[in-house]
Design goal:
mainly alpha, Receptor-associated Protein, 17 helices
């Protein structure tokens, strides 16, 4: 059954938007009018990844196009909330169709709401939930769909959904922690660059012009300041070209297979940040693998999915080698250890987990331990970055102030002498 997105006026005359499923556009309008809603725009949503929306009214096309161009995506947080709600509904004994119908009304994200409506129709026609979700790969990843399929096969879908929601919430928390750690330094850097740029571009040239007009011998620091200020004011366009061009070439180089491999290897070796990035990758690997295995997904398939989750190509290669080795009959701990990309304590705990038959539990413990270490390192780096950036800004301002004050003191001394 087609799904339509509408813009309408309610009984009080206020504009509202939403979605409705009906056999045709005419039936959709009639269905809305029965509820006291009078549609002004109606557009049929795509029912699959390759389908295009069928415009029922031209005026609706502008709105839909803008939604596609400027946002409207489904975040991990949106998906985690939806997953938690679905798990709760199914756990309460509500049927799949009724649960999906309830989600359609509860979910706030419009794109996710449209997808759930379409999925509900497919499930109502006899499709499995995982199979229906695969029609929306940009919303439901392979990891998500494989876990749903495993839950359906085992008859414990509500349990798998709760585990999946926990996993997504943990990933959101980790990502938020990383972003929050970089916000303050980024703001400080921008403010610092703005202040220095203003001083060098506007204040310093006016002050130093007085010194040059007086034709007195200037201290070295003042001559250095004048030279730097002159370079900034005269060749700012060259600096802009270098920055923009450098960023463009860097992105092009990093987009190549060789460039990405070299950059990923460099980031893992980088001082301070390299260790943190490795810990984040290890924590994500452990958490994802534990979640998949606990949900009934096979080890080989789980490693394939985890490889796609980890962004670093060096660690991806290590996971792929491990998958091949496991497929040939090896344990998972040995190839991970040979790769030298994973901490020894992690591979040791995994080996113990394999021997005791508690691999999922050990992976969870590894993930917990490294997520705590990531948090500790982020807090420590943030604590160190703040005074370091403050000190750097102080030194820059002191250099500018000293460069201006020294010749002024010299001029005062000459005036007093005369």
């Amino acid at each position: 059954m087609p799904v339509y997105e509408y813009k309408a006026l309610n009984a009080s005359g206020k504009t509202e938007t939403g979605i409705v499923d009906a056999d045709s556009a005419k039936a959709a309008r009639a269905k809305l009018r029965k509820t006291g809603i009078f549609p002004t725009e109606l557009v049929e949503e795509a029912s699959g990844p390759g389908a295009k929306p069928k415009l029922v009214k031209k005026s609706a096309s502008v709105e839909v196009d803008f939604k596609k161009l400027f946002g409207g995506g489904v975040s991990t947080q949106d998906l985690a909330i939806m997953t938690r709600q679905l798990a709760t509904l199914l756990g309460a004994g509500i049927s799949m169709i009724e649960a999906l119908n309830a989600l359609t009304e509860q979910v706030e994200n419009e794109r996710l709401k449209v997808a759930i409506s379409s999925i509900k129709e497919k499930v109502n026609e006899g499709s499995g939930l995982a199979q229906a979700m695969r029609a929306y790969p940009k919303i439901f990843s392979d990891l998500y769909c494989n876990m749903i399929a495993a839950g359906e096969a085992s008859g414990a879908l509500d349990v798998v959904l709760k585990r999946l929601a926990d996993f997504q919430e943990a990933q959101v928390a980790l990502n938020n922690r990383l972003v929050a750690a970089m916000v303050y330094p980024a703001i400080m850097a921008l403010v610092g660059l703005g202040v220095v740029g203003f001083l060098m571009g506007f204040v310093v040239p006016k002050v130093t012009k007085i010194f040059t007009d007086m034709k007195v011998a200037l201290p070295l620091v003042t001559r250095m300041l004048i030279a730097i200020s002159h370079f900034f004011t005269s060749f700012w366009w060259l600096l802009l070209i270098l920055v923009v061009g450098g960023a463009w070439f860097f992105r092009r180089w990093r987009a190549t297979e060789a460039g990405k491999a070299q950059w990923d290897a460099f980031t893992l070796r980088a001082p301070v940040f390299g260790k943190l990035l490795r810990l984040v990758a290890v924590a994500r690997f452990s958490r994802t693998l534990a979640t998949l295995l606990s949900s009934g997904v096979s080890l080989i398939q789980s490693l394939t999915i985890v490889k796609a989750i980890v962004a670093n190509t060096v660690i991806q290669a290590a996971i792929e080698d491990t998958r091949v080795a496991v497929q040939e009959g090896e344990s998972i701990a040995e190839p991970l250890k040979r790769s030298r990309q994973f901490p020894p304590i992690m591979t040791h705990m995994i080996a113990i987990g394999e021997k005791t038959g508690e691999l999922e539990t050990m992976l969870e413990k590894v993930a917990d331990a490294y997520e705590v270490e990531v948090k500790t390192r982020i807090d420590m780096m943030t604590a160190l970055l703040e005074p370091a950036m403050t000190l750097t800004m102080g030194l820059l301002v002191a250099f500018i102030a000293l460069s201006i004050l020294l010749p002024m003191l010299k001029m005062n001394a000459l005036v007093s002498h005369h």
